[in-house]
Design goal:
Elements lengths: L5 H9 L3 H6 L5 E3 L2 E4 L11 E4 L4 E4 L5 E2 L1 H8 L4 H12 L7 H28 L6 H10 L4 H6 L3 E3 L5 H8 L4 H6 L3 E3 L6 E3 L4 E7 L5 E7 L8 E3 L15 H4 L7 E4 L2 H9 L5 E3 L7 H10 L2 E5 L4 H16 L3 E4 L8 H8 L1 H8 L5 H12 L5 H16 L4 H15 L3 H32 L13 H16 L1 H9 L12 H12 L16 H15 L6 H34 L2
Parallel strand pairs: 12-13, 12-14, 14-15
Antiparallel strand pairs: 1-2, 2-3, 3-4, 4-5, 6-9, 7-8, 9-10, 10-11
Helix pairs in contact: 3-4, 11-14, 12-13, 14-15, 16-17, 17-18, 17-19, 18-19, 20-21, 20-23, 20-24
């Protein structure tokens, strides 16, 4: 089932206590025999993230995340199961003996990383070749005015306008066409089956991960042709939703603050001007994984996106995701320039440093954008602006915060604060009622399995599925029951379960042929969401007095009847349809 023996997994977990590992990411406080902290996976002001040292597990009562130390690392570091185990093994100084499947996975990753190093060297040599790289060097040095030391620092390169220069070079080094394609360095022609260079006639930006490995590349054209940027897609060594450009440099300078930019050139310009805490997303919009990565290294983020409409929309999304992970977020307003690179070239680094001290809050950012939309000299336009601003104020969770913003808007718009307060209070009450209604609807839907992404069959037969979850919860709490049932030949089969999720979990549990096991024994075969569900099922049983084996037998009998009822109903529907067809 797992690529690493369970004995090794147990040793890794034993030598990585969940309290020690979690406390390196989350500030924990003692609460009886447990520990409490603010959840690192969603934004909250009241601690609901609980670590249970006795069971070496964690659970967030706010967002539902839960599991063991491996599950925690999978989430916080955005890793798959094998990589999370490797991470913890390295932390504990444990050497893992890998089997063939894992060796193949690691070999693919290593080949991509080795290939990327060779490609980065090739692109760099092309840039410094007077014949091959003249256009690229001219673009970087003359048009973008980058200092030679900065070009070397970021390892910038150039891909000549040739369909086979890189692929021929890598072929001579022993790399196969399919490997180059695997690394997104080459495509395979559908006409003749031959490989061709992906990056052509572009300035190249190598992308390094936190460890300093070259994991990907970005390529920019030197004119107005499209696409402006070509970026490495996901490969065995790279996930664009989990990496930030220049984070390998910025992580040493960003404990207090990160500057989040849109593009490579903005980041390079900022680093060149001394702002080494700048990073950028990689040809994609900001993701929850990006937000969690930033949360690991900094306390606050300044959004420095382009001043155009697209940049402002992107900033709006960034505010939401960054606040969800609990990061203090502000936005930089650039007057007289489109982006940080242009601003520094026009006004200098000292003026930019002053801007960083005069950033705007999320409210100020939204307020300014609303005022840009409307001509408040006109009555109708002014009323529309006030109505939209009141909607923004109503979303502020703090009553004191709402009061402050009401005063600001009243003074700015020349209207009574009391009138704005009255409107905002109405909106707040309506929003609260809507939230309560949605929560009620969510609970009802959840009880019926509607929208269940983990157990998608739940909605087909909520009675049977609910019964299954109770059975699984008891077995997770008392795995010795299943061991005892198997010895007496009374254990149910996977086919006795109704949902595919129930069958999958029961099969995994059944295959562990011993009296004791925990959820971590199932980890290699499950997603973090599935582990969350199992943790929740187990914890729900700990709150109940009766978890005896007799109840388990009763639930199995109930499941049998619920499943039969569902099947009979289906047969009845089919029979009736047949009867209808026979009618004249």
């Amino acid at each position: 089932m797992a690529w690493i023996s369970e004995d090794v997994i147990r040793e890794i977990r034993y030598r990585n206590s969940i309290e020690d590992v979690v406390s390196s990411y989350v500030t924990l406080k003692r609460a009886g025999s447990n520990l409490l902290g603010l959840c690192p996976f969603h934004s909250e002001k009241t601690a609901s993230f609980t670590v249970f040292p006795n069971t070496e597990s964690f659970h967030c009562f706010g967002c539902g995340a839960g599991g063991d130390v491996i599950s925690f690392v999978r989430r916080i570091e955005n890793l798959d199961y094998p990589s999370a185990v490797e991470f913890l093994a390295k932390r504990a100084g444990i050497t893992i003996v890998q089997d063939d499947r894992d060796k193949e996975r690691m070999q693919r990753r290593k080949r991509v990383l080795d290939m990327n190093v060779e490609a980065a060297r090739f692109f760099r040599s092309c840039l410094y070749d007077p014949k091959l790289g003249a256009a690229g060097m001219r673009y970087l040095s003359e048009k973008r005015k980058l200092d030679p030391a900065l070009i070397r620092h970021f390892g910038l390169g150039f891909a000549p306008n040739d369909f086979g220069l890189l692929t021929r070079h890598l072929s001579k080094l022993g790399y196969k066409d399919y490997e180059m394609s695997d690394a997104f360095l080459a495509g395979i022609s559908k006409k003749n089956g031959k490989s061709y260079d992906y990056f052509r006639n572009r300035v190249i930006f190598p992308i390094l991960d936190i460890s300093g490995d070259v994991v990907a590349f970005g390529g920019r054209v030197m004119d107005d042709s499209l696409p402006k940027y070509l970026n490495t897609s996901d490969t065995p060594a790279f996930k664009k939703s989990r990496n930030l450009f220049a984070m390998n440099f910025a992580r040493k300078h960003c404990e207090e603050q990160l500057i989040l930019c849109e593009g490579y050139m903005d980041v390079i310009a900022l680093h060149g001007a001394g702002f080494q805490n700048a990073v950028a997303t990689l040809g994609t919009a900001i993701t929850p994984e990006h937000a969690r990565l930033m949360k690991r290294y900094t306390k606050s983020v300044i959004i420095s996106y382009d001043s155009d409409e697209a940049g402002q929309r992107a900033a709006d999304k960034a505010f939401k995701l960054l606040s969800e992970v609990g990061l203090e977020t502000r936005v930089l307003k650039l007057d007289g320039a489109k982006d940080p690179d242009e601003y520094i070239k026009s006004f200098g680094k000292d003026r930019f440093a002053l801007l960083l001290k005069d950033t705007k809050s999320e409210f100020d950012f939204r307020f300014d954008n609303i005022l840009k939309k409307y001509d408040t000299r006109l009555v109708d336009e002014k009323l529309k602006a006030i109505e939209e601003i009141e909607g923004v104020i109503a979303q502020v969770p703090s009553a004191a915060g709402r009061e402050v913003y009401i005063g600001v808007v009243a003074e700015k718009m020349g209207i009574s604060a009391e009138m704005i307060r009255r409107d905002v209070d109405k909106r707040t009450r309506r929003a609260q009622k809507a939230t309560e209604r949605r929560e009620t609807e969510r609970l009802i839907a959840a009880s019926q399995g509607i929208g269940d992404r983990v157990n998608t069959d739940f909605v087909k037969n909520p009675q049977a599925a609910s019964c299954e979850e109770k059975i699984l919860g008891i077995l997770l709490l008392h795995p010795e029951y299943l061991y005892e049932m198997k010895k007496k030949d009374k254990a149910p089969s996977a086919e006795d379960f109704f949902t595919e999720f129930g069958k999958k979990i029961y099969t995994l549990m059944f295959e562990i042929d011993r009296e004791y096991f925990d959820i971590s024994a199932l980890g290699s075969a499950l997603s973090v969401e599935e582990i969350d569900r199992l943790q929740k099922l187990q914890m729900s049983r700990t709150k109940l007095a009766n978890n005896k084996i007799e109840l388990l037998y009763e639930l199995l009998e109930t499941l049998k009847h619920a499943k039969e009822k569902s099947e009979l109903s289906l047969e009845e529907i089919i029979r009736r349809k047949r009867d209808q067809k026979k009618m004249p």
